[in-house]
Design a protein that fits this description.
This protein has 320 residues and is α/β, with parallel strands linked by helices. It has 8 helices and 9 strands.
Length: 320
């Protein structure tokens, strides 16, 4: 039997590190309620995740999250008893962060489906921070359209307010919705969140730290309200390749929709499409990853690292 390993001495490393084999063995007694068809429906475009990957990685992760959520619930009950309160338990909030094209959206959707099939957490909601981007008209007004996805392109106050209301136990909270076809906010639609057992918040910058105000005090960060956080990681050169491959697939699918914001790319030949994808990556996504996303990796409770073939090969869990 092998055991988790660490890359440095236990005293110096805040993580317990698992390889794929030792991590997958953690799920020996955990059911797998998804089918191969479920996984195909949940995975993102360009993400080849399959049922064996879900079995090896996400099944044990869902079991671990159930343990953490149950422990938090027990702490809530003990604290309420101590304080003489009868406060309703607030939702368990999980943040999922990582680069464009790294597979964090697939990870978030899979966790939602796995966790909602556990009897302890039947109500699991997922929101993406895309809905909190400023509308394109506002981004143009601010000169930020070419920096879409950078921290300043989000209505951070609205996002913070949303998560704070969920975590305060509000009966109903709504979030704006984003349309990936028109590349803009849907002005007349909202996602309704009604006091779930678990809320998953997925986005590029959800682990960003609090910022200093003009008066020197610190603001709050969205991650201040997370009970658990996950960073989906990979080598930058691999993520770039996955981004280019996804762009080529979108050229033949979503971009061909007449309503698509990117319709102008649908008729590019292969060489021109690769060149355009690499240009977008180098001018927008690579700087955002290096400057804003990757520096938040160390704030995560769990780091899932992908290999070149998209398969998770290392898991680093922060020690309690």
């Amino acid at each position: 039997m092998s055991f988790p390993r660490t890359t440095t001495s236990a005293a110096a490393n805040p993580y317990v590190e698992f390889d794929r084999a030792s991590w997958s063995r953690l799920a020996a007694a955990t059911p797998l309620p998804l089918t191969a068809a479920d996984v195909v429906n949940l995975r993102g475009l360009g993400d080849p995740i399959d049922l064996p990957e879900v079995d090896a990685v996400y099944r044990p992760l869902s079991g671990l999250l159930q343990l953490y959520a149950a422990a938090t619930g027990a702490l809530h009950r003990a604290t309420s008893t101590f304080l003489g309160e009868r406060a309703t338990r607030t939702p368990y909030v999980i943040g999922v962060a990582g680069s464009v094209a790294v597979g964090k959206s697939s990870a978030a959707r899979l966790l939602r489906e796995l966790m909602r099939r556990w009897p302890q957490t039947p109500r699991v909601d997922l929101i993406t921070t895309d809905g909190f981007l400023y509308p394109n008209a506002e981004l143009r007004r601010r000169g930020l359209l070419e920096r879409k996805g950078f921290p300043e392109s989000y209505d951070r106050r609205a996002l913070l307010r949303f998560v704070a209301e969920v975590k305060s136990g509000a009966d109903e909270v709504t979030a704006p919705l984003y349309d990936h076809v028109t590349y803009d906010i849907l002005p007349d639609r909202r996602q309704v969140v009604r006091h779930p057992d678990v809320l998953i918040v997925e986005g590029l910058n959800v682990l960003a730290p609090a910022r200093a105000r003009a008066d020197g005090t610190m603001s709050m960060a969205v991650s201040d309200f997370f009970d658990f956080s996950i960073y989906v990681d990979a080598r930058t050169r691999d993520i770039k390749q996955w981004y280019v491959e996804r762009f080529l697939k979108l050229r033949r699918t979503a971009f061909s929709n007449p309503a698509s914001y990117f319709r102008r790319y649908a008729d590019l030949d292969d060489a021109a499409a690769v060149a355009k994808a690499e240009e977008i990556w180098e001018s927008i996504n690579a700087p955002n990853l290096a400057q804003n996303i990757l520096p938040t990796r160390g704030r995560a409770t769990l780091v899932l690292t992908k290999a070149e073939d998209h398969r998770m090969h290392r898991m680093r869990l922060r020690k309690l």
